[in-house]
């Protein structure tokens, strides 16, 4: 079985390394039943919106991507109902300029936070969630450019998952004026499932079985710890003011995914 996964959007982009590792783990857990496999990447430079279109069209062999679930999943795709990053990406933290970082330290209410413009990627569900709650959102088409945009003050907050903060900070230290906020976080449920063309029936069955096997034997959590624990600790969520928002775009989603969500530290409140 040849399986295609999303490649990086730029040479410094490490966002999809965990996704590939999870898919490889699920395929490995099911090798005895389904046989051997090989994994290939899509070409460098494909953004999330393009990846979704290519998956819908089944452009590559067994192309499978991670998708922030919502009620608008294309009919041609099937979602495997398991939150592969265990829900931690819902804790959003911001890359900012030094000036914005100072201003954020004075934020006390959600209305205070809405004074800041949020920068998000083209096609990301976060944009719709934030706009629903009254935030001003600007979208950018190029992932790498967004770090420079906030560093230069062209927008205020580039929100990332707590699990993404450390790698992205280390990968962009050369950007003059870039900082990361340490005062606040926004949380909203953001289950990310693996999705693929509905035509890939064997892949769907195999990945679903493999994810559950990996969860049951602890190997998925071990992988999560290896890839994400350092960043979650680095984000120091327990030291931040947490603003919790609803996600109205998953209201039709079967809630069974919630039992797999990893609890990050104590119960955090606004």
The gist of it:
The chain is of the alpha/beta class.
In CATH, the homologous superfamily of the largest domain goes by the name Periplasmic binding protein-like II
CATH class category name of the largest domain? Alpha Beta
Proportion of residues in β-strands: 15-25%
Percentage of helical residues?
A: 25-40%
The main sheet comes to:
7 strands, mixed
* Annotated CATH topology of the largest domain: D-Maltodextrin-Binding Protein, domain 2
Count of distinct structural domains: 2
Q: Output mean pLDDT.
A: 92
Q: Shape, please?
A: globular
Specify the CATH architecture of the largest domain.
Answer: 3-Layer(aba) Sandwich
**Uncertain stretches:** 266-270
Output the number of helix runs. 10
Judged by helices, strands and strand pairing, the structural class is alpha/beta
